[in-house]
Amino acid sequence: MSFVTGGIAQAKSGSYTLNTQAVSLTHVIDVAGQSGRLTLTMPYSELSGTGHVGGQTINASAEGLSDPMIKASFNLYGAPALSNSEFKNYQQDLIIGASIAATIPWGEYNSNQIVNVGGNRSLIQPAMGLSQAAGPWRLELAGMATIYTSNTSYMGSNTLSQNPVYSGETHVIYYFPSTAWISADATYFTGGQTYVNGIPANGTQENWRFGTTLSYPIDKQNSIRLSGSKGVYSRTDTSYNAVGISWQYRWGGNP
User: Fold this and answer.
1) What 8-state DSSP symbol labels residue 80?
2) What pLDDT shows up at residue 84?
3) N or C terminus: which one in the chain shows less Cβ crowding within 10 Å?
4) 149: part of which helix (H) or strand (E)?
């Protein structure tokens, strides 16, 4: 089975606004008898706004391709690879899974700007999580590390490096009889101190975010998803608010 998803999202932090349009393609695979997924995401973004860093006014204006992401997800327990007919009778209990994602530094980048829509560096994200079913409810917990390579063209020929960011998230999900679902989401981030030419530039991050997601099936092949999240605490004053909407179409799968 395969999925194609198209969506738009907007994130705001202070006077900065980031609008992103993205298309992703996902293909479901069999990984040693368990279900898995391969996903490619292609984003395009527009960034605008004015801010202040160290008493200096920073004007941001950028538009173009953001860094594409590839992701492999695979379940380790509780989610066998099934045909469509087999999946109709599947009842979830406990699922344990893992994933690995990486970005490709193809995004638009200007070495004379502090803020860009492309990072001019890669990031790698290993993660593990679990999902426990209880009737129509699902409780999900996950942990992830974001590991950064260095940007050697930061503000000219400077080198920007960053410690890993560690995050944990939880989702409480309720499934309606129509298979629509709604969730309450919370995420905690820590780490991520940055360095310019080996000299500390920003302190360690510590952020809390809360949000919600609603997914509604239109028919057997199509569904829409609405999401929103809000930064409720940030040690380094990097909170942002975000909203998004996406459409998903699926096809294929064995009978």
Assistant:
1) B
2) 82
3) C
4) none
Can you say whether the dihedral through the CA atoms of 195, 199, 202, 204 is positive or negative?
A: positive
Which of 110-125 are b and which e, b meaning 16 or more Cβ less than 10 Å from the residue's Cβ? beebebbbbbbbbbeb
Q: Would you say residue 142 has pLDDT above 80?
A: yes
Q: What is the C-alpha separation between 226 and 12, in angstroms, rounded?
A: 17
* Nearest CA among 242, 167, 171 for reference residue 205: 167
199: left (phi over 0), alpha (psi -120 to 50) or beta: beta
Q: Which residues contact 77 (CB under 8 A, 6 or more apart)?
A: 34, 94, 95, 96
H helix runs in the chain, sequence order:
84-87
Cα separation, 180 vs 247, in Å, equals 14
> Which helix or strand (DSSP H or E) is residue 152 part of?
strand 151-154
Both structure tokens of 237: 């004053």
Give CA 118 to chain center in angstroms. 15
Angle at 21 between CA 50 and CA 58, to 5 degrees: 10
Other CB atoms within 10 A of residue 157 CB: 9
Closest CA to 142 of 153, 154, 157, 127: 127
CA neighbor of 78 nearest in space, from 56, 95, 65: 95
Q: Give which of 139, 162, 140, 131 is closest to 149, Cα–Cα.
A: 162
* pLDDT band at residue 56 using 50, 70 and 90 as cut-offs: low
pTM score: 0.89
